[in-house]
Amino acid sequence: MSEKPSARSGQLPRRIVQLYVGLALYGASSALLVRAGLGLEPWNVLHQGLAELTGLTIGVVSIVVGAAVLLMWIPLRQRPGLGTVSNVFVVGLAMDATLALVPDAHALAIRIPMLVGGIVLNGAATGLYISARFGPGPRDGLMTGLHQMTGRSIRLMRTAVEIAVVAVGFLLGGTVGIGTVAYALAIGPLAQLFLRVFATPAAGGGSTVVAGAQPKGAILRR
Q1: How far apart are CA 175 and CA 171, in angstroms?
Q2: Transmembrane region positions (predicted)?
């Protein structure tokens, strides 16, 4: 019995590192998709469209939208964690930092590998930050909150929300393309793979925890 508290405390540094490395890599992967110019993940289609409209950077827009979505948790009675609040800021900052370092790509021979690398990196980043178990991202919490409020399935809520944000983002000038489709098809299997790779031991020191047993753990995105 005396070994369990130390085991739990020993997990905490690893989990914190996983959280922030995962969020930073998520922002970097999103920036690679922007530079590839072949289509973005759903929420970043909206972020890019709003960035075109407002003149703000896409990372700053991501932070503003994330904060606005987090406020929507209040009537939905969702509880944020460290990972939820960190997600709002770290992803946007990492995205802008990566965009400042990575130049525009014009040749398809560069853009296609950049797209593929961005999607794979996004899956790895998702596995890192979700398996750290510090709470869902603000957009995931919105979907689970709508699920609880309406009684509709998480899959339906996720699909409805993401179709809406893609449509609005596209109308505002966000990039929708083959990369958007490729991301939608690949992110689920990739995230599930990396959730298992980066799974952390459960608090009791027994089996590992991937993303939780409840359906809400299967959202797999911010």
Answers
A1: 10
A2: 20-38, 50-74, 81-102, 108-130, 163-187
